[in-house]
Amino acid sequence: MDIEFDGEIRFWRGPAPWFFVTVPAEQSRDLKAISGLVTYGWGVIPVHVRVGKTEWKTSLFPKDGRYLVPIKASVRKAENLEEGDPVTVRLKVR
Length: 94
Fold this sequence. Notes:
Layout: E1 2-8, E2 10-12, E3 18-22, H1 25-38, E4 45-51, E5 54-63, E6 66-70, H2 73-79, E7 86-93
């Protein structure tokens, strides 16, 4: 399954602070529909991600009926991204 969407870099100040982009509701429903086939536990879904010219592997985390795409510091640095910046995210679920 390949998914592409536009989102905004957000900062989560939780117990483990992190930057992420939220997958839109429609695509999150599609991911939820296949999650039982691809998850390795706790509902997380392993994916390949591309933002700009940077690609990496990570896992989507379920949160409030949607999924979060973690954006690593190395990706933000390579793509010159900060909190609030708009991005196009490409996901490959295998």
